[in-house]
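hey m, so remember when u said the tokens were messed up on ur end? i reran from scratch. heres the input so u can diff it against urs
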Amino acid sequence: MSQVVAVARRLAGNPVARRLFLDRNIEFWLRAIDPSWSVREPRARVIEVIVETADTRTFVLKPSAGWPGHRAGQHVTVEIEIDGVRARRCYSLSSAPGDRHPAITVKRAPGGRVSAWLHDHARFGTVLGLGPAQGDFVLPPAPGKLLLLSGGSGVTPVMSMLRDLAARDRIRDVVFATFARTADDFIFRDALEQLASRHAGLALHLGRGHLTEERLVALVPDLADRETFLCGPPGFMEAVEQTFARCGAGHRLRRERFVVPPPRRVAGEARVTLARSGRAPVLPASATLLAGLEAAGERPPSGCRMGICGSCKTRKRSGTVENVLTGVISSDAEEDISLCVTSPRSDVELAL
């Protein structure tokens, strides 16, 4: 099968074939044979669905030929079609890089179109669009003392790291602390307890309730000496960041965010002119451009909604905007911005 796709890709990549639009015909017939085959983009077939908690599922995937693999801690863009509209979201890989099949673990988000669709419709044989693995939230080549710290579904990328360490027999001095609301909300609980029982170098802590500075320091007294990888909800991450800052250990902390911090509360509105359509909705200055445009009935391309995947990157012709991640305010003309992490600070014109 992989040889068929490889031959088709070589044919479709031929300049003569592209001029004659044969690449489109090849793509059509490949998908008619097997929906997971494509000459244009990687795809993956769901081969197993694992129930982790009441609202969390792991989807084990079989990527099409040519998918380049991943490093522990990275994420991928998943693309599906909902009611005739393509939707993209980023999900962290929860499998180790050496596993035969990669896996993503998805928590159903309130109002989340893609996570809800995956939970309700993805079954054995479902085909998804699968982008290449991305992100620099990865382990160093030779990790020393480690702290893997997560809250809720933030356990996903650090679980990939722990599985990678276990597969390479590199669990020497690792503290793995994950927090959830209730005992039933711990994702990977059984797998974590099995790993802890097999590796003396793994100290596992399953915590419930609010994480305070006192609690964290008591749990990991030597946190300033540990390379720390953190992922979780905003409030949880903020508490950890403040603790590390006060301990003078901020430089030891690596972060992965699943949720963009809310924009600053700014009074007023901004008219956003869409150059191609000619429409000019008035949006609140306290919302991101993506959220404001969607609330106004527009449907700009979007993906991860965290400023990572680049799906909503758009040319700003004019106007002043603020990046909600960095706080940087820019009035430059003809610059590319990500709508999902940008708020208007004046009237803006976009090349949409």
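this time it looks ok to me. Confidence is low (pLDDT under 50) at residues 16-30. if urs says something different then somethings off w ur setup not the seq
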